[in-house]
Specification:
Layout lengths: L7 H13 L5 E7 L9 H6 L4 E7 L6 H13 L3 E4 L7 H21 L6 E6 L6 H9 L17 E4 L4 E5 L11 H10 L9 H15 L1 H8 L7 H11 L11 H13 L13 H7 L3
Length: 288
């Protein structure tokens, strides 16, 4: 299964961002803590180069804590401001404090010139990474639309969150060609790619293979199955254990796929991180 998804509204959103970049002072870059490499949009990196960046590893409560700590060290080693958040339970004070630290030099410079400045922050990331939820935490209200599927936010929204800070909530952006299919699959696991365009049975088998390789004990603990060399057989064993069967007793792979993906996305299979901390910076050191 080759995955690629770049609907028309993303192309429009990219044009909108390009037009508004001159207004932006800080980029609040949301990455999925389970896949910080795979969820980092290289197209967005190019567009916002030269801007102040605060990296927010969101959904950290669903990620492997040890690997999250490794990712934080790697980002800090590269000079990024970085913090974590747990989606809807993110703490407004911590988020504002981090943005205020980046804003302070700009505000002081403007004050020295006798100018009143509003610091404008672009909240950006791939679909379903939690941008609107984080904006609602910062704004203290349900100002931005939220949802558990890709493509909920479609237009531009400026939202004031403090006396000096405004946020631009942008639609989730992927990049036109998902050449790295390992990253594309991991994006699909998290719901960053619309399920309607995917073969969910094949995707669930791929997810089973990924968990079997990285966190086999999680599958055994959650489903009571033996992890087999063939991930398709492991996946079908999970279907059988859950009683997801067709007439005649064959595993109902479609219902099993929906169940497995939902339980992974909600963290019921355990805290897991599929991207390793060195991946992004190994690529950067090669000049990619």
């Amino acid at each position: 299964m080759k995955i690629n998804w770049y609907p028309g509204h993303m192309a429009s959103a990219r044009r909108m961002l390009t037009e508004n970049l001159r207004l932006i002072d800080i980029v609040l870059l949301l990455l999925d803590a389970r896949i910080p490499y795979s969820s980092r949009n290289p197209d967005l990196d190019r567009l916002t180069r030269g801007k102040q960046v605060l990296v927010l590893l969101n959904k950290a409560d669903l990620a492997d804590p040890a690997l999250t700590a490794g990712w934080i060290k790697e980002f800090e080693r590269k000079g990024y401001a970085v913090m974590t958040a747990n989606g809807k339970t993110a703490k407004r004070g911590e988020l504002l404090a981090a943005l205020n630290r980046l804003s302070a030099p700009m505000l002081e410079k403007a004050q020295a010139r006798g100018v009143r400045k509003t610091v404008r922050v672009l909240c950006a990331g791939v679909p379903n990474v939690g941008k609107s939820t984080i904006i609602n935490v910062l704004a203290g209200s349900g100002r931005a639309k939220t949802g558990d599927r890709a493509g909920v936010t479609r237009g531009k929204q400026w939202i004031r969150v403090s006396q000096y800070l405004e946020l631009l909530d942008s639609p989730g952006l992927l990049w036109p060609r998902l050449d790295n299919q390992t990253a594309a699959k991991r994006l699909a696991f998290t719901g960053a790619i619309n399920d309607d365009i995917l073969d969910l049975e094949e995707l669930a088998a791929e997810l089973t293979a990924q968990i079997s390789a990285s966190y086999p004990d999680n599958l055994t603990a959650r489903y009571g199955v033996e992890v087999l060399p063939d991930p398709n057989l492991t996946f079908e064993a999970i279907c059988v254990k859950r009683g997801l069967l067709l007439k005649g007793g064959a595993p109902d792979r479609l219902r099993g796929a929906v169940m497995l993906l939902d339980e992974y996305r909600s963290g019921k299979i355990g805290r897991m991180t599929f991207d390793l901390p060195f991946e992004l910076f190994k690529e950067e050191s090669n000049g990619s």
